[in-house]
Amino acid sequence: MEAKPTHVRLEPLLWILFSAGGVVAAFLIPVHLFLQGLAFPLGWAKAADYSSIAELVAHPLVRVYLFVLCSVPLFHFAHRIRYTLYDGLQIKHLNEVIALCCYGSAVVGTLVAGFLLWNIH
Amino acid sequence: MKSTSAPTPYTLNHPRWYRKRVSTYWWFQRPEYLRFVLREVSSVFVAYFVVLTLLQVYMLSRGPLAYGNFLNLLKNPFVIAWNVISLLFVVFHSITWFNLAARAMVVRVGGKRVPGVLISGSNYAAWLVVSAVVAWFLLRG
Fold first, then answer.
1. ipTM value of the model?
2. Chain A residue with minimal CA distance to B72?
3. How far is it, in rounded angstroms, from Cα B46 to Cα A106?
4. What does DSSP say about strands B108-109 and B112-113: parallel, antiparallel, or unpaired?
5. Pick from A21, A32, A83: which is nearest to B134 by CB?
């Protein structure tokens, strides 16, 4: 009975993160994935060379951008896959474990992103 | 007839309701269900993109040689194929998200509700602009 209200208060925050991540993913990921994952490796477009990419990523605003690009979509993923596993596979008895793994991986990913982007010179 | 009997005593052993068992593969049964599940699965590819991007940042921080190795990995045919699939899913997410925005957002101008086509249309237009800006940053060498 003690743990229930905390859970209820956490849910809106998780939903907001899910929603924000959905927006960020919808607007930004396709162009990034198309260029970095297909157009550059296949030679359809020429990527900037190492030094200019490194210079670009070192810019504080670009680092903030990359942090947002990586962090909130992870919470979007966590929320979606949590409920898909919950409904889709009918494994309601594993609810707590699934929620912990999903949001936990998003938190870990966010920490890794923060660490990597903070330490770029 | 006189109703003299006491109200039915509460039984601890509540009867189980009859519920038809839903197949684990219910999402294969109708195209709409499958589309719903594919939309949800698109989030896996969103997560993949984040992992790929973080790997790229990490390799970038390790110097030109490590970064070159990473770029060579991206040229692997299996990675290319996986990225094609990922791109399809991610674009599917964008389309479903913008179409949903038309239903989720109720915008009123002058007391009248703005039609959904206009809302999703402006989302698509913004998507184009945002993509062009990102591409400009990534392409200028």
1. 0.90
2. A41
3. 12
4. antiparallel
5. A32
CB contacts, 8 Å: A33 with chain B: 49, 83, 86-87, 90
Any domain includes B54: yes
* A7 found inside a domain: no
Instruction: With a cut of 50, say whether residue A18 has pLDDT above it.
Output: yes
Contacts of B58 (CB under 8 A, 6+ apart): A116
| Reported confidence tier of residue B17, pLDDT bands at 50, 70, 90 | confident
Q: Which residues of A touch B80 (CB under 8 A)?
A: 37-38, 41-42
Using pLDDT thresholds of 50, 70 and 90, give the confidence band for residue B116.
Answer: confident
* CA-based R_g, chain B, Å: 27
**Nearest to B29, CA basis, from B41, B39, B37, B19:** B37
Q: What's the total number of domains in chain B?
A: 1
User: What pLDDT, on the 0 to 100 scale, is given for residue B88?
Assistant: 97
Which CATH number fits the domain that encloses residue B121? 1.20.1300.10
> Can you give the pTM of this predicted structure?
0.85
CB atoms within 10 A of CB A110: 17
Domain carrying residue A85: 13-118
Question: Residue B3 domain-assigned?
Answer: no
3-class state of residue B113 by DSSP:
strand
Bridge partners for B53 per DSSP: none
The tokens of A112 are what?
């890794």
